[in-house]
Specification:
single chain, 341 residues, alpha/beta, seven-stranded mixed β-sheet, 15 strands, oxidoreductase, NADP-dependent oxidoreductase
């Protein structure tokens, strides 16, 4: 028997612009009516949506050049989601019960046009795996900073959604030593025990350059940087000749309480870049359109073989989503964080 469709849906809106890091009171749950479907449209019941740090930037005052629209008071949050088709309009290209991926997360139900979703397909064995940010790490390690056999790879922010995948990907691509950084001893232990990192630097336990040099005594060949700041400074300082540095994020600035979310200054020894022939490039997905499909095939194969682990935490209930965003920014979770509304 077909379940009756709801007349309304709950969604998370920004109710006031944060003056520093967002807090739960900056967000609120609203009940909104659902409109009738037009030709080709579908109604999707979201099963999971991604909580990601880039939302802090979109809420801030520095959004120039950001490839996503800024968020203002009254706007509904958005982001990657996996949902089940609950109703279809005339001429829709999917069927009831199909899984689709889209960008209308942070709500229970979403009305999507034909160009607003993609079928999930069967390449990945776990629906939540469609919300992995490993594609960026894979693209960086195959396009910008390709790993060579025996390389020493440093991953900053290694316990985050992208970092935990980057270390494993580097190993699978031939890295000989994988070093990470994180903010707690407990996370460092997990990275070593469960995800194959050879060494993990815990920030705040000493001068970062000294700690990183001890963890990578022969220097670094490849850097996958999600943090910037002192960690990027240190990585450049001990990088070997010909090292490749891929920048995927800048959380030291993005998540700083005294900044506006869209800048992250770092002190870089440019002379070292020159004399050691070090390359440094920022990774943008739009520059590498072939990566997502290639990553999905490779990721699915690795998951089925058991050669890669996808760490994620599912938080049930849309009411908890505002607090989860704050928790993720504060580093209280490990790996990918999703809400099951």
């Amino acid at each position: 028997m077909t379940q009756p469709l709801p007349r309304s849906s709950r969604e998370i809106r920004l109710v006031r612009q944060p003056h520093a890091l967002p807090v739960p009171d900056d967000l609120a749950v609203f009940d909104v009516p659902l409109r009738a479907l037009g030709a080709g449209e579908i109604l999707v019941r979201n099963r999971y949506f991604l909580v990601f740090p880039g939302l802090r930037t979109l809420m801030g005052d520095e959004t120039d050049g950001v490839p996503l629209p800024p968020l203002h008071a009254g706007d509904t949050l958005f982001g990657p989601a996996v949902g089940e088709v609950a109703a279809v309009g005339e001429g829709a290209a999917v069927e009831l019960g199909d899984l689709v991926v889209h960008l209308e997360g942070w709500r229970e139900f979403a009305v999507l046009g034909a160009d607003g979703y993609a079928p999930a397909g069967g390449a990945l064995p776990d629906p939540v795996a469609h919300l992995s940010t490993g594609s960026a790490a894979y693209g960086a390690l195959t396009r910008l900073a390709p790993v060579r056999d025996g390389d020493t790879v440093f991953v900053s922010g290694a316990a985050g959604a992208t970092g935990a995948m980057a270390g494993q990907i580097a190993r699978l691509l031939g890295a000989g030593r994988v070093v990470g950084s994180t903010g707690s001893a407990a996370k460092a232990a997990r990275l070593r025990k469960e995800f194959g990192f050879d060494a993990v630097v815990v920030r705040g336990t000493g001068p970062f350059t000294t700690l990183l040099a001890e963890a990578a005594p022969d220097g670094i060949d490849v850097v996958v940087d999600m943090v910037g700041g002192e960690q990027l400074t240190a990585a450049v300082a001990i990088a070997r000749s010909g090292a490749r540095i891929a920048l995927l994020g800048a959380l030291a600035g993005q998540l700083a309480a005294d900044r506006a979310g869209g800048s992250s200054p770092a002190e870089i020894d440019s002379y070292r870049l020159v004399v050691r022939g070090i390359t440094m490039r920022g990774y943008r997905g739009v520059d590498h359109p072939s990566v997502p499909a290639e990553w999905e095939r490779q990721f699915g194969r690795w998951l089925r073989e058991g050669t890669i682990r996808f760490p994620y935490e599912v938080v049930p209930g849309i009411d908890r989503a505002p607090s989860v965003l704050q928790e993720m920014i504060a580093g209280r979770h490990f790996g990918t964080v999703v809400v099951a509304p």
